[in-house]
Amino acid sequence: MKREKIKLYINKNMIAPRLSYTTFLFPFLGNMFNKNIPYSDKIWKYGISLRYFELVSFVSEADYILMPHEYWKLKNRYPNIIYAITNEAKKNGKPILVDASGDVSGRVKVPNARILRINQYRFNLPKDEITVPVPCEDLLESHCGGKLTLREKKEIPIIGFVGWGKLSFKQRMRAFIKELPIRIFSIFNKKYATYKKGVFWRELAIKIFNKSKQVQKNFIIRSSYSGYVDTLIGDPEKNRQEFVKNILNSDYTLIVRGDANAATRFYETLSLGRIPVFIDTACVLPLEDIIDYKDFCVFIDYTDINKAPSILADFHKNITPDKFIAMQKQARYIFRHYLRYDVFSEHLARILKK
Fold this sequence. Notes:
It is built from 13 helices and eleven strands.
């Protein structure tokens, strides 16, 4: 049976000069890797699949007009292009597909659009948004030859973490001042606490786990973010090997939000077939209507973060060795068949057809 593809149209006159286009266009126009992100080539080895999307030459043929650049970049530098695309879509009676899947928070105001997002909150979820995975490297393929190794259940669980987990005094003061309004709001409404910068949540979670004797810690705490060349300290390849090894040699991996209310580490952990311990700051995950994430993740609500070691210890104590193995297999399966971008393309196309 022939598969009906989603037909996308871009007005090439609206491609901004000296601005990287949306990764949605990589399969059609070639990859434009962000030189400030290590391993960009490996991240997009499995990108949007041409099996489910095609680029058409005439707007009349299109299912969607695709905004050619990431929304937040256009808003900051070329808002006139957003305005022009909106007018073109209205004139031709076509909906717009908007890539707003960066770390930036805030409402995307584009009429008659479907908007791709990673930075969402469960208590404030617009109906026009589609939650997409954070693109990441398939670490099992690139570091383990595609061979899944499974950990046997031991009495004491090991939780791992490698990454930015502490702030200098200067960084702390700068971030604190920037977040002062939401911290004040959170006194009256706890949900505003979820907007706090991810490193504050990571710092707190690490501190709480380090005080506990109920779980074994496998933590390597860095003083800077390793996801950008500009902030990375040390040898990138050595850091990456250390990161992968830490996940593989731990029963569970600590997952806490980043600058966005999402975490690349979550998908990287799944790619290696390991179980995330997810500090849930009202996060929204892709395909929640068909994926039961509790089958292969441990979720701890941010309001229970002080009890996180006890929650994990009790969870680990009460699952059978077979269930522990099954969760690892399921983690890899879901990543490989639902959340890696080449296969997520099919699910995205299905959503867009609605």
